[in-house]
Amino acid sequence: MRILLADPSRIGLKLMTKMLVDGGHEVLPFTDGAAALECLQGDDGVDVLLTSFEVPNVSGLELCWEARLIANSRHPIYVVAMSSSHDRDRLIEALDSGADDFITKPPVATELFARLRAAERMTRAQHELVRLATIDPLTALPNRRAFFDRAEEACLRSGSGSPLSVVMFDIDHFKRVNDTWGHDAGDLVLKAVAEVIRRHVGSPGRLGGEEFAVLLDGWDLLDAYHEAERLRAAIESTVIDITDTVLRVTVSVGVAEHLRGQSVDQMMKNVDVALYAAKTSGRNRVVAAQSSSAGDHASGVSDVVQTIYLAC
Known about the structure:
Order of helices and strands: EHEHEHEHEHHEHHEEHEEEHEE
Number of domains: 2
CATH class of the largest domain: Alpha Beta
CATH topology of the largest domain: Alpha-Beta Plaits
CATH superfamily of the largest domain: Reverse transcriptase/Diguanylate cyclase domain
Helix content: 40-55%
Radius of gyration: 25 Å
Largest sheet: 6 strands, mixed
């Protein structure tokens, strides 16, 4: 496991680091609480925080609290507090501050490794729960909840001046696929489309049914439009093998750029309007929302392309 270790004693830190490395763990050692906190906030690969109470600048209790906030919002972290004191009040304080476990210093190797095995079991279970809550089981793409969480974070970054665009599309005449070849064929189509999305840039998600979206962080509207056109063409050219049938599908695509001050919902409403325009103007095309307003209208960026429904 990847362990962030914080202890004010350089000798103690060196001894515990060697013990953990010899046990097969990766260790990020710190004697300063502020530096440990910076690492904790910036490294999403930390599995365990192992911290003494007496760390300077940012205390061990503060590290426990910050780690718990991260664990509740971003990714699981198992928190173990350490102290040379056997004071029950200190133990209670550590647990109330977000620690999952408590161990006395200097730790006995066998006890420490037993606690870390428990931590590994717990974090593995938490990772699986996060996966089940955020990943679409059919396509293995982030689900609607995970996509909107990412979109909200991206909108906050965009508010500081970095461009952000979103692409939304759905599969044309998808009901016809299910009605003609059955839902198993529909599932194959959804998985094939998801594979195409993975080969392109951006942060994708399945919003539900046959509807997908891709966040393009750092992309303005024009560049996002061209990427959406590449994605549309790639899906159209994909051959999907079904029993005794070769199927091709097309998608209708909307593109919108995040405007300063917009909420996630406003941005997604804009791109939804653009997607609707793509569908009502003939399907199998990309339409971009006007970037000059909050977005009750949509307009095409390029000439209309020929509509192709299904080929088999």
